């Protein structure tokens, strides 16, 4: 397919998929703290369904894959099998008790950004907006809550630290908050978070689950231990989690950990602070996930990102990847319908 035709097709598909995004609203008087929660639906007078419900039904049809249970014994992908090894911790969906969270200091309301109110054109959307679309579609598909939370730019540290503040702000209202960087993507839209919690054996004692970074000295702390990557975080609502979040937030003050102030602005900011200090005091509450399952990309041998892709070296292609994933799944459903009609002798 010619590039311009492919982009036109992507645009048409996303006009269909995201037509209900109109209830994403922007209030310019709340620029410093904007949030949207998917639990707030706007009712269509004629249909009796909320806009959220209509979009959810559409996405479930496109990405449903025949219904993947939260207790599915295994997942087969690319010649590998991923088995739930223990009795499932979660046997029913958690729905709105799970929040899919985006946190940033940017409003993403400019031209070719996702919260720009007019002239939506998928083919021109900037890459990080594509990541937000992936997170929102995933939340809608599974009936989770979703928030894009815009927080003020910190005056004493890197903007990346706002993910810690965002978790502190939102976690009291949910059982689990799943945070993703804008270039971290759900690779298989039909696999629910509950299944991943079961697969990774994240029980009630786990406060955080994060994936290891790829091997390499640049991804190690001062003791030679690999960092966990803060681009994908599963946080669980329990008292210890809030204690850890508060300690993490206060790390650069050096009241507890001398030397942590360097990570106010030095790379990798909050990730380095967590890896150098926080996790060592809270080992038993942090689950380190395999890099190949929740980090990296499909063609990176050391970290293939089976369940969560993190495009930290291909950020520019994020929108295209999201579009191709959605288009492929939509066309699979169209093909199924066509084959049914063909089998009935209507098209033969």
From TrEMBL:
UniProt source species: Cryoendolithus antarcticus
Family affiliation: Belongs to the glycosyltransferase 34 family.
GO cellular component, one term: Golgi membrane
InterPro entries given in the database record: Glyco_trans_34 (IPR008630), Nucleotide-diphossugar_trans (IPR029044)
Alphabetical UniProt keywords: Glycosyltransferase, Transferase
Superkingdom to which the source organism belongs: Eukaryota
Keyword hit for Cell wall biogenesis/degradation: no
Protein's name in the database: Nucleotide-diphospho-sugar transferase domain-containing protein
Gene Ontology BP terms: protein N-linked glycosylation
